[in-house]
Amino acid sequence: MDVLSDVVAVTRTGRPRSAYVRWHAPWGQEFSSVPGSAGFQVVLQGSCWLLPADAEPVRLDTGDVVFLPHGKGHILADSPQTQVATPACGPDDVERYDVYASDSVDRSGEGGPVTVLLCGAYQLDPSRAHPLLLSLPDLIHLPAHPGRRAELGSAVKLLATELETPSLGTDAAVPALLDTLLLYILRIWFDERPLRGDHTTGWTAALNDPPVTAALHAIHRDLAAPWTVAKLAAEAGLSRAPFAKRFARLVGQPPLAYLTWWRMTTAARLLRTSEAPLRSVAAQVGYTSEFAFAHAFKRAHGTPPGTYRRKG
Fold it and tell me: What is the DSSP letter of 237?
């Protein structure tokens, strides 16, 4: 996998949820803060206001996409002046969340203008949180405009169709489309972010730096390969010392430190999600010795891999 695909596949856990919601003004809904999750809101029809807890109101129009990568609480309403009296929507709200896999919800107000939203949430594993996701701001707003990549709008339309008119295969299609939507949101954010300022370090810069991106893709494409700084430098098209310095400056840690961390993060996922023998897990993350793998895993996670798996 490339680095972005790998990050999403390894970090997300559980079943993503989504709903197609039709509101009639006046309306307002609070969404609880849920650490260890990420959520999105897409305006399919009409307009509304996003009211963050600690920022200025944001007007959302048809086609706008909002992504909250850290599960921050917020309010959506037809107007900043609307009083929100309904209970906050949170992970323990069984009445609402029962329908989030594929069904639709209609929240009728007093017959005012209609706003249709596509909303959803992803559960993330904090123990496998990738610095790429941790580096994102609390709120990402992607306004609709003709120049934006068409694939985002296509994914939104497909997901909305599945939720509005569920049919055979919807339960399989929705999670796949949610993952696709998440990837498109992140792709657009990282592609467009450098245009908004001078970003010389961090993951925004790393993913827009061809040599470092080549090395990252090499690691994520073949994690079991016997990588060395020299081999990764060759992938990047640089000599060893300049590459190591450049990688550390942009990614925030040296190449082999990142490689080891990602190997242990991937190993943790394999131990939790598969019944593969320890020697197989070790081989998949680049260790020819089960003993060496167990030693590295315990150093990273504080417990031997067998115990980690048994504890679930």
Answer: T
